[in-house]
Amino acid sequence: IERTFSIIKPDATKRNLTGAINAVFEEAGLRIVAQKRILMTTAQAQEFYAVHKERPFYGELVEFMTSAPVVVQVLEGENAVAKHREVMGATNPAEAAEGTIRKKFALSVGENSVHGSDSAENAAIEIAQFFAGMEIVG
Ligand code: GTP
Ligand code: MG
Fold first, then answer.
1. Residue having the nearest C-alpha atom to atom 10 of ligand 1
2. Starting from the edge strand earliest in sequence, which strands make up the sheet with 2-8, in order?
3. Residue 91: CB within 6 Å of ligand 1?
4. Is the CB of 85 under 6 A from ligand 1?
5. How far apart (Å, rounded) are the C-alpha atoms in residues 100 and 125?
6. Which of 104, 63, 74 lies closest to 7, judged by CA?
7. Can you say how many angstroms the Cα of residue 25 is from the centroid of all Cα atoms in its chain?
8. What pLDDT digit, counting tens, does each position of 33-80 carry?
9. Has 52 been annotated as catalytic?
10. Ligand nearest to the CA of residue 45, numbered in listed order
Protein backbone atom coordinates (compact mmCIF):
# COMPACT_ATOMS: atom_id res chain seq x y z
CA ILE A 1 0.00 0.00 0.00
CA GLU A 2 1.29 3.45 -0.99
CA ARG A 3 0.50 7.06 -0.11
CA THR A 4 0.57 10.16 -2.25
CA PHE A 5 0.09 13.88 -1.65
CA SER A 6 -2.71 15.68 -3.46
CA ILE A 7 -3.85 19.30 -3.72
CA ILE A 8 -7.20 20.49 -5.03
CA LYS A 9 -6.10 23.86 -6.42
CA PRO A 10 -7.75 27.32 -6.15
CA ASP A 11 -9.45 27.20 -9.57
CA ALA A 12 -11.28 24.04 -8.44
CA THR A 13 -12.19 25.09 -4.88
CA LYS A 14 -13.55 28.39 -6.26
CA ARG A 15 -15.85 26.49 -8.62
CA ASN A 16 -17.08 24.19 -5.80
CA LEU A 17 -15.49 21.08 -7.35
CA THR A 18 -13.96 19.53 -4.21
CA GLY A 19 -16.60 16.80 -3.97
CA ALA A 20 -16.61 16.04 -7.70
CA ILE A 21 -12.82 15.61 -7.68
CA ASN A 22 -12.88 13.49 -4.51
CA ALA A 23 -15.49 11.25 -6.16
CA VAL A 24 -13.02 10.55 -8.99
CA PHE A 25 -10.31 9.62 -6.46
CA GLU A 26 -12.59 7.30 -4.49
CA GLU A 27 -13.94 5.71 -7.68
CA ALA A 28 -10.32 4.93 -8.63
CA GLY A 29 -9.80 3.12 -5.32
CA LEU A 30 -7.85 5.91 -3.64
CA ARG A 31 -8.75 6.41 0.02
CA ILE A 32 -8.64 9.94 1.52
CA VAL A 33 -6.74 9.32 4.77
CA ALA A 34 -6.10 13.02 5.57
CA GLN A 35 -7.65 16.20 4.26
CA LYS A 36 -7.83 19.89 5.17
CA ARG A 37 -8.78 23.16 3.52
CA ILE A 38 -6.14 25.86 3.94
CA LEU A 39 -5.12 29.20 2.52
CA MET A 40 -1.49 28.63 1.56
CA THR A 41 0.96 31.31 2.61
CA THR A 42 3.42 32.68 0.06
CA ALA A 43 6.25 31.04 2.01
CA GLN A 44 4.51 27.65 1.92
CA ALA A 45 3.88 27.89 -1.84
CA GLN A 46 7.46 29.02 -2.52
CA GLU A 47 8.85 26.10 -0.53
CA PHE A 48 6.46 23.59 -2.08
CA TYR A 49 7.37 24.63 -5.63
CA ALA A 50 11.07 25.33 -4.96
CA VAL A 51 12.06 22.83 -7.70
CA HIS A 52 10.43 25.17 -10.23
CA LYS A 53 12.20 28.30 -8.88
CA GLU A 54 14.07 28.98 -12.12
CA ARG A 55 11.07 28.38 -14.40
CA PRO A 56 9.45 31.43 -16.02
CA PHE A 57 6.04 30.61 -14.51
CA TYR A 58 7.24 30.28 -10.88
CA GLY A 59 5.98 33.69 -9.71
CA GLU A 60 2.64 33.19 -11.42
CA LEU A 61 2.35 29.69 -9.91
CA VAL A 62 3.02 30.90 -6.35
CA GLU A 63 0.53 33.74 -6.81
CA PHE A 64 -2.12 31.34 -8.12
CA MET A 65 -1.65 28.79 -5.33
CA THR A 66 -2.12 31.50 -2.67
CA SER A 67 -5.04 33.24 -4.41
CA ALA A 68 -7.85 31.20 -2.82
CA PRO A 69 -8.20 28.15 -0.53
CA VAL A 70 -6.76 24.77 -1.50
CA VAL A 71 -7.56 21.32 -0.14
CA VAL A 72 -4.44 19.35 0.80
CA GLN A 73 -4.85 15.60 1.06
CA VAL A 74 -3.11 12.31 1.64
CA LEU A 75 -4.43 9.53 -0.59
CA GLU A 76 -3.73 5.87 0.04
CA GLY A 77 -4.04 2.82 -2.20
CA GLU A 78 -2.27 0.27 -4.38
CA ASN A 79 0.22 2.20 -6.56
CA ALA A 80 -1.33 5.43 -5.28
CA VAL A 81 1.24 7.75 -6.92
CA ALA A 82 0.76 6.35 -10.43
CA LYS A 83 -2.98 5.83 -10.08
CA HIS A 84 -3.47 9.40 -8.86
CA ARG A 85 -1.45 10.84 -11.76
CA GLU A 86 -3.43 8.69 -14.17
CA VAL A 87 -6.79 10.06 -13.04
CA MET A 88 -5.41 13.64 -12.93
CA GLY A 89 -4.33 13.50 -16.59
CA ALA A 90 -1.61 15.49 -18.38
CA THR A 91 -0.45 18.83 -16.91
CA ASN A 92 -1.88 20.70 -19.90
CA PRO A 93 -5.65 20.02 -20.14
CA ALA A 94 -5.42 20.28 -23.94
CA GLU A 95 -3.28 17.12 -23.82
CA ALA A 96 -5.17 15.32 -21.04
CA ALA A 97 -6.95 12.06 -21.81
CA GLU A 98 -10.73 11.83 -21.95
CA GLY A 99 -12.30 11.24 -18.54
CA THR A 100 -9.38 12.64 -16.52
CA ILE A 101 -9.83 15.39 -13.94
CA ARG A 102 -7.78 17.90 -15.89
CA LYS A 103 -9.65 17.13 -19.13
CA LYS A 104 -12.97 17.63 -17.35
CA PHE A 105 -12.18 20.56 -15.07
CA ALA A 106 -8.83 22.31 -15.71
CA LEU A 107 -8.91 25.82 -17.17
CA SER A 108 -5.31 26.04 -18.44
CA VAL A 109 -1.82 24.58 -17.97
CA GLY A 110 -1.43 26.79 -14.89
CA GLU A 111 -4.94 26.60 -13.46
CA ASN A 112 -5.10 22.84 -13.77
CA SER A 113 -7.27 21.93 -10.75
CA VAL A 114 -5.04 19.35 -9.04
CA HIS A 115 -1.52 18.52 -7.93
CA GLY A 116 -0.13 15.04 -7.40
CA SER A 117 3.28 13.88 -6.22
CA ASP A 118 5.51 12.43 -8.96
CA SER A 119 7.17 9.73 -6.82
CA ALA A 120 6.66 7.96 -3.50
CA GLU A 121 9.83 9.66 -2.24
CA ASN A 122 8.53 13.15 -3.08
CA ALA A 123 5.12 12.20 -1.68
CA ALA A 124 6.66 11.60 1.74
CA ILE A 125 8.43 14.98 1.63
CA GLU A 126 5.28 16.82 0.50
CA ILE A 127 3.04 15.09 3.07
CA ALA A 128 5.44 16.09 5.85
CA GLN A 129 5.23 19.72 4.72
CA PHE A 130 1.48 19.90 5.40
CA PHE A 131 0.51 17.13 7.83
CA ALA A 132 1.57 15.95 11.25
CA GLY A 133 1.63 12.17 11.64
CA MET A 134 -1.38 12.28 13.97
CA GLU A 135 -3.53 13.94 11.29
CA ILE A 136 -3.21 10.95 8.94
CA VAL A 137 -5.63 8.18 9.82
CA GLY A 138 -5.40 5.18 7.50
P1 GTP B 1 1.76 18.99 -10.40
O2 GTP B 1 1.02 17.77 -10.03
O3 GTP B 1 0.99 20.25 -10.06
O4 GTP B 1 3.19 19.02 -9.96
O5 GTP B 1 1.72 18.99 -11.99
P6 GTP B 1 2.71 18.28 -12.98
O7 GTP B 1 3.69 17.41 -12.29
O8 GTP B 1 1.81 17.70 -14.03
O9 GTP B 1 3.44 19.55 -13.59
P10 GTP B 1 4.87 20.20 -13.22
O11 GTP B 1 5.40 19.62 -11.96
O12 GTP B 1 5.66 20.19 -14.45
O13 GTP B 1 4.42 21.71 -12.93
C14 GTP B 1 3.88 22.06 -11.68
C15 GTP B 1 2.74 23.01 -11.87
O16 GTP B 1 3.24 24.22 -12.42
C17 GTP B 1 1.66 22.56 -12.87
O18 GTP B 1 0.70 21.71 -12.31
C19 GTP B 1 1.05 23.88 -13.27
O20 GTP B 1 0.10 24.34 -12.31
C21 GTP B 1 2.25 24.82 -13.26
N22 GTP B 1 2.78 24.97 -14.60
C23 GTP B 1 3.49 24.08 -15.34
N24 GTP B 1 3.80 24.56 -16.55
C25 GTP B 1 3.27 25.82 -16.58
C26 GTP B 1 3.24 26.86 -17.57
O27 GTP B 1 3.76 26.73 -18.67
N28 GTP B 1 2.60 28.02 -17.21
C29 GTP B 1 2.01 28.19 -15.99
N30 GTP B 1 1.40 29.36 -15.71
N31 GTP B 1 2.02 27.24 -15.05
C32 GTP B 1 2.62 26.08 -15.34
MG1 MG C 1 4.92 18.01 -10.64
1. 91
2. 31-38, 70-77, 2-8, 114-116
3. yes
4. no
5. 26
6. 74
7. 11
8. 999 999 999 999 999 999 999 999 999 999 999 999 999 999 999 999
9. no
10. 1
User: pTM score, two decimals?
Assistant: 0.96
104 annotated ligand binder: no
Q: What is the pLDDT of residue 65?
A: 98
Q: From CA 84, how far away is CA 5, in angstroms rounded?
A: 9
55 is in an annotated binding site: no
For 72-110, write each residue's pLDDT tens digit.
999 999 999 999 999 999 999 999 999 999 999 999 999
Which candidate, 38, 10, 67, places its Cα nearest to that of 129? 38
Indicate the top mutation candidate among 6, 9, 112, 126 to test ligand 1's pocket, ranked by most ligand atoms within 8 A of CB. Answer: 112
ipTM of predicted complex = 0.92
- Cβ atoms 134, 122 nearer than 8 A: no
